[in-house]
Amino acid sequence: MKDSEILLIKRSQKGDVEAFEELIRDYKKIAFNIALRILKNKEDAEDISQEALIKAYSSIDRFNMKSTFKTWLYRIVVNTCLDFKRKKTLITYSLDEPIKTETSEIKMQIQDNKSNPDVIFERELNSKMVLEAVNQLEYDFKTIIILRDIQGFSYQEISEILSCNPGTVKSRLNRARKKLKTVLEIKIQEYEYQI
To answer: Which end of the chain is less congested by CB atoms within 10 angstroms, N or C?
Structure first.
């Protein structure tokens, strides 16, 4: 950890709210993105990521500097999402569905600088199939795929976030990828059959 981050942590542990705000400034967006990918609902992700940040502030005095602050914080986010899912049965939404606001719907768009319609169609189809396949995985598999393959965390960081050893992370990730491959193969067959 950087000296500046350690200083902010120590100030936060003494109750300095401004220091904590500065400490989490760079982590808020990623915390929200993790929650969004796990919960698949923008409003829930906003609420749960905020709840996780409040939990982090409330328990910052117990942070012992043995892991990185980032890993510690994201473990709180993942655990808060898990607690939320246990308490509430969630309806699954596709990431391709529009985001509904109080007054309108917003379509998610991925910027693509290539104008070839065939390339664009194939990329969107592949992306849609992968996201749908990930969403079909059971929670443990989906979480580990999101943390490793989408968010890019290291095995060590994931082991700290999920409170398990790196060997378990590798094993679970291997099983998750095999399951994802199976689901994708079925989706591809279904698509080819439709053509």
So the answer is: C
Q: What is the arithmetic mean of pLDDT over 35-62?
A: 91
- What total of structural domains would you count in the chain? 2
Q: Is the pLDDT of residue 160 over 60?
A: yes
Residues 9, 90: Cα–Cα separation, whole Å: 35
Q: What is the pTM of this model?
A: 0.55
Query: Residue 42: enclosing H or E segment and its boundaries?
Result: helix 42-59
Cα 46 to Cα 132: distance, rounded to the nearest angstrom: 22
Whether 146 maps to a domain, the answer reads yes
Tokens for 172, please give them: 């679970």
Domain that holds residue 127: 109-194
Cβ contact 137:145 at 8 Å: yes
- Give the up-direction half-sphere exposure of residue 195: CA atoms within 13 A in the CB hemisphere: 5
3-state secondary structure of 21: helix
99 — phi, psi (to 5°)? Answer: -85, 125
Taking the C-alpha atoms of residue 98 and residue 120, their distance in angstroms, rounded to an integer, is 19
